[in-house]
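To close the section, here is one more complete example, presented without commentary so you can practise reading it yourself. The ligand is MRU.
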Amino acid sequence: MAFDSKIRPIQWVDGVSRMLDQTIIPYEYKYVDITTGQDMFDAIKNMIVRGAPAIGIAGAQGVVLYAQELRNKNLSLKEFKQQLLEKADYMATSRPTAVNLMWACKQQKDIITNSGSDIDGLIKELTDKAVEIEKDDIERCIKIGENGADVVPKGATILTHCNAGALATGGYGTALGVVRSAYDRDNTVQVFADETRPRQQGARLTTFELAMDGIPVTLITDGMCSYFMSKGMIDMVCVGADRIAANGDTANKIGTYTVAISAKYHNVPFYIAAPLSTIDTSIKSGKEIPIEERSHEEVTHINGKIICSDKVKVINPGFDVTPNELIAGIITEVGILRAPYEKSIKEAFEIHQKDLLQ
Ligand code: MRU
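Output:
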């Protein structure tokens, strides 16, 4: 039995999207209802909901919200479909790096294009798909957790970066799914969480959700990982992913690449945990992954207060790409993929095509 995490960051409830506002955790634990397509676009962009699988679910729900709005416009079925396809394309641009968002919007676009139903029937099909994507994600996370737990050493200290937990998915988590399943088997496992500048997902979200589930967690700043690895205090790294290229190069939260280099130097296995929907087989390598550039204020300000000269230049990429040679394995719902990744990824898609949502 997998460890039961009760956190559900985003759900479809009575025709609206109910999501935990992740910008205010840990100060408040509050749900907000998102009722329009544009509000969903903004919620994704402003990271009220964040994490690759969670914004995929949000994107799918956002298309349903747009469909509900368009229903009131007395359009013909053809016009309705045409306008909704444009809205789905727009929703997919709310953030650029995590491919789950584009993947989920594409799932909805396929329904819009291929459905033979009238407008009400089509909206029902889109709603069912959004709910299916959410539920399916939780099941896949539990499988990722179980597969990953097999490679967690007894009593391990696992370093993680950012938040790839229940909060970043339908529930349970990818990297933190591995932690949950490992802890369920061996309660001497513990986590070191990087704070994750500049948005502090590690400090604000990872420590919050692990503490909520009673899993031991120690907070460290981003610059400390090499120090603790050199002391032999880290047995394994496990992080999530926003997009994995066909050759295994992996985009994840800025700072992940630094952790991977340090892990290689100190002989600490560095694992990625992600569902197959995070793998973008249409791109050959990480060079093709678009990296989001976020507001400079995220770097210059903390809690609304400036922390540097107001004349300073700032660059703020939200993600970096870890080259495949630094990755010990990609833990997926269908097993752990190993190098050479071109081959293992291709095979995983060939064998499991039928199990993918479509
Ligand atoms: O900017 P964020 O908070 O959306 O970035 C999230 C990450 O980088 C996660 O590690 C990744 O999306 C995997 S979530 C299971």
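Once you have examined the tokens, check your reading against these statements. Residues 89 and 105 are 7 Å apart (CA to CA). DSSP finds eleven helices and 16 strands in the chain.
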